[in-house]
Write a structure and sequence with these properties.
The chain is α/β, with parallel strands linked by helices and about 150 residues long. The chain has 3 helices and 6 strands, in the order E-E-H-E-H-E-H-E-E.
Length: about 150
């Protein structure tokens, strides 16, 4: 049987700053991110399964992404860990949801992070195929499993 791909789209709000960047994105600023998650597998053929004909229930995929990505990153300030060491960001409101990452939080690096997180959450037999992270209406980054080095 053929493999099929399904895609679910998600939206979340987040801010970030790029340390050492030579443009305006060095300052804290926000985006209305749009994330498309595409997974691939062979559809379930067990006629007794309530999921027969599906590779994965869209609702199950939604729950995985919500718990692994959007619950953490929605309305968060994403900063490199080096900002934490400098004591620049106060604790508590309105800085209660700061996510410190061990990389420069560009769309490209955020996608690499998301790919690792999502791959670890998927059930056996389901493969992460593609991610697309839209930062603005005209700018986005993409990640493909097939592009990864072995």
């Amino acid at each position: 049987m053929s493999k099929i791909r399904i895609t679910k789209e998600f939206r979340f709000e987040a801010a970030h700053a790029l340390k050492g960047y030579d443009g305006p994105c060095r300052n804290i600023h926000g985006h209305s991110y749009e994330l498309a998650v595409t997974v691939t597998a062979v559809p379930i053929t067990d006629a007794a399964s309530p999921k027969c004909g599906m590779i994965m229930d869209f609702g199950d995929l939604k729950c995985l992404i919500k718990s692994g990505i959007t619950d953490l990153f929605d309305h968060a300030l994403i900063l490199p860990e080096s900002f934490k060491d400098q004591g620049l960001i106060p604790e508590g409101e309105p800085f209660a949801n700061v996510v410190y990452v061990d990389y420069q939080p560009t769309s490209e690096n955020i996608l690499i992070d998301f790919a690792g997180r999502i791959s670890g959450l998927l059930p056996a037999g389901i493969t992460l195929h593609h991610l697309m992270l839209r930062e603005t209406s005209s700018s986005y980054a993409e990640w493909y499993f097939s592009d990864q080095e072995e």
